[in-house]
Amino acid sequence: MGIHTADAIVLRQYPYRETSALVTCLTDRFGKIKGLIKGLRAPSPSRYRSAMEPLTLNRIVFYDTRTSTLHLISQCDLLVGFPALARDLEIMRLAAFCTELVDALVELDEPQAPIFELLKRTLGRLSTGEVEPMATRIHFVLRLLRLVGFQPQLDECTGCSQHPREPRAFWSARQGGLLCAQCLHEDPKAEEIPSSLLEVLTSCAELEEPRELDFQQATAIQQRLDEFLRWRLERPLKTMRMSG
């Protein structure tokens, strides 16, 4: 049995029996973990105070039994609560979407430090209230998809692996990215994507910070990314249904 300390962003929390809770966290050193916290929901004043709520950053101590994917969290201290997120419904929904998408894409017990940093920076950016939500959402989705190796194929045709002949490139969420005109039979419903929009989409995936987008560009890109996620995820995200 190992004892570990880590910084953890809480993705989900569930009641367990009368006073305990099950949590899913993304940690800086150990990736996504599931843990049991005894006494978190006790009616008496909890030593955990406001720690371990979803969308908070905590420092935890947990026991790794190596015989189960459920770890025992023995200590948790709130580091950052991001209280400003709750002041704007749109921002709160976006933050919840980010954590739900991480939970859906990241495997358990695999170190994912870059993803932890991406989520931490994004929540911090959203908590300032000085962001453009759609551009922030697009950047987060594209960076996360790239980090987990799940990104749309943007540099070559998903059918023949050749570079699409500009300007005739088509977007196919079902096929996982671009199609050239010769492979359009793979998805006859694929829509032509302008080269200017493809350039913006590609650059957003490469940049470390969100790129400024006009409303028309952002709307077109978000629509295509949402289509991609609906085809690629095993289960639809609740936060996508709410925003839709």
Coarse shape: elongated
Class based on secondary structure composition and strand pairing? alpha+beta
- Poorly predicted runs are none
Strand ordering within the main sheet: 1-2-3-5-4
CATH top level of the domain at 132-244 is: Mainly Alpha
Radius of gyration: 20 Å
Taking all residues together, what is the mean pLDDT? 88
CATH topology of the domain at 132-244: de novo design (two linked rop proteins)
- Helix and strand pattern: EEEEEHHHEEEHHH
Percent of residues in helices: 25-40%
* Euclidean distance between termini CA atoms: 45 Å
The count of helical stretches stands at 6
Extended strand count: 8
Please describe the structure with a list of short key phrases separated by commas or semicolons.
244 residues, 24% strand, 8 strands, five-stranded mixed beta barrel, three-stranded antiparallel β-sheet, de novo design (two linked rop proteins)
Characterization of this structure:
The chain is of the alpha+beta class. It has a domain at 132-244: Recombination protein O, C-terminal domain (de novo design (two linked rop proteins), Up-down Bundle), CATH 1.20.1440. The protein has helices spanning 89-105, 113-128, 133-147, 195-206, 215-232, 238-243, and strands at 2-16, 20-27, 31-37, 57-64, 70-80, 169-172, 177-180, 191-192. A hairpin with a 3-residue loop joins strand 1 (2-16) and strand 2 (20-27). The model has no long low-confidence stretch (mean pLDDT 88).
